[in-house]
Amino acid sequence: MASLNLQRNSEVFFSTVDILNGAAITDLRPTNTWKLEVLAGFAVTSSSATQDITSLESGTDPDRSQQRFNTAINPVDWNFQTYLRPTGAETGAAANTTTAATNQTGNVKPVADWFMWQSMVSNTKVTGGSDGTADERSVWATGGKLQTTNVAAATGSHSTRSNFSTAVENHLYFKLDNVIYQVSNATVNQATVDAGIEEIATTTWAGFGTTLKEVTGSARDVAVSVFGGVLNSGSSVTANSNFQTMSHTATVLAAYHPYNQMNVAGASGTNSFIKNRLSTIEFHHKASAGASDEKFTFPVTALSFDYNNNITYLTPEELSSLNEPIGQFTGTRAITGSATMYLRTGDLESAGFLRNISEDSRTSSAQTSNANLIIGGATAPYVAFQLDACQFEFPQLATEDVISMTVNFVGQETTANKGTGGEVTIFAKK
Q: What is the model's pTM?
């Protein structure tokens, strides 16, 4: 009797290596494969575009038939949720040539899913290759900092820019208990950070891929040998995640990064959860161009941040063909968010902020306004999103038992960074 595959036993992996196109087991290494600790409710779907041809004639015996055709394969949709967890790996470390190729100068990895953020924000791939000697390439900077402005290569850091026309492509592996699927050429389109007051901080990731295929045969044995599970023969193997003791040799064993460990300069650390109840926001806004800057600091009841690349795919429309996507392009980079707080009386409280915004007659005040969203509060662990130019919408009041208000905002480029990104800078601290 066939066994059921349970969501509880599912795992998700991110890699630069394409097993379905002949990659060997030794190609999967700590330099190019990472495990994501996902929450329940993840999804990966593949669909087709269709066309219905119908006939409808008059008369007592009309042709009332319908024919359906598949016209194109749509890009694969995937999404999953992870906890936003700082690691403490905030300082660049020198390359370590005696252990696995997991660190190099400037290789800061301050959050567990740092590679997802980089794949979304930067044009720099997270690894230099799969030959076992190429080190990871992190564009996070010392201090747990990731910025969207263009950064040139320097000692201890990699070049990066956020104004790219096509997103970097990697591969996602969904191990659904005993069945493994590969999303080829996966792009990270969107990240939504949620900081509900009664919850643990999470990031919802969403993106696309070109194909969704089951990994079978010898390729499946390769994947299972890396991820762990039941081989085609029926025997079980344990995932090899002991990445700290591997050498740069041809006999190096396959491995991946466990979600709860980071290896920077030979040191491993457990990631920290972020308690949303401690989250705060700091808004700066001038009521007029000539007015003095006013700072408003609030505790929040809800806080969210969203980064969206607005990726679209091009698909031909040839007749008599099942068309497939031929490429992807990024759209407008959209950085948005919202904050909800109680309405408190006072010039520098939420009531004062509401009055300040409502009395502003300018069409745009982004260049004289900024926001700092501190997920987790001023004391570590936290992840902060700094928006140096921020356009606030008029806050909306909610007349409940305790009056509250919600303000939506959009991060923009500063005048100094116009055309080079710079809408947001992310800081992670354990």
A: 0.90
* Coil vs helix vs strand at 154: strand
Q: Is residue 255 part of a domain?
A: no
Total of domains in the chain:
2
| Confidence class for position 375, pLDDT limits 50, 70, 90 | very high
What is the per-residue burial (b if ≥16 Cβ within 10 Å, else e) of 50-86?
A: eeeeeeeeeeeeeeeeeeeeebbbebbbbbbbbbbbb
Residue 413 in 3-state DSSP?
coil
Question: Of 34, 239, 231, nearest to 117 (Cα)?
Answer: 34
Query: Does 185 lie in the same domain as 126?
Result: yes
Within this chain, do residues 332 and 230 fall inside the same structural domain, yes or no?
A: no
Q: Which residues contact 219 (CB under 8 A, 6 or more apart)?
A: 19, 20
> Closest Cα to residue 148, out of 120, 128, 172?
120
Alpha helices, DSSP H, located in 231-371: 350-358
* Same-domain pairing of 183 and 227: yes
How many CB atoms neighbour CB 94 within 10 A? 12
169/125 Cα distance (integer angstroms): 8
* pLDDT at 376 exceeding the cut of 80: yes
Residue 384 lies in a domain: yes
Full residue range of the structural domain in which residue 165 is found: 7-46+75-245
pLDDT digits (tens, 9 = 90+) for 158-206: 888 999 999 999 999 999 988 999 999 999 999 999 998 888 999 999 9
Residues 350 and 415 in one domain: yes
**pLDDT at 369 exceeding the cut of 90:** yes
149 with 233, same domain: the answer is: yes
Highest averaged pLDDT of the listed ranges 77-81, 147-151, 363-367: 77-81
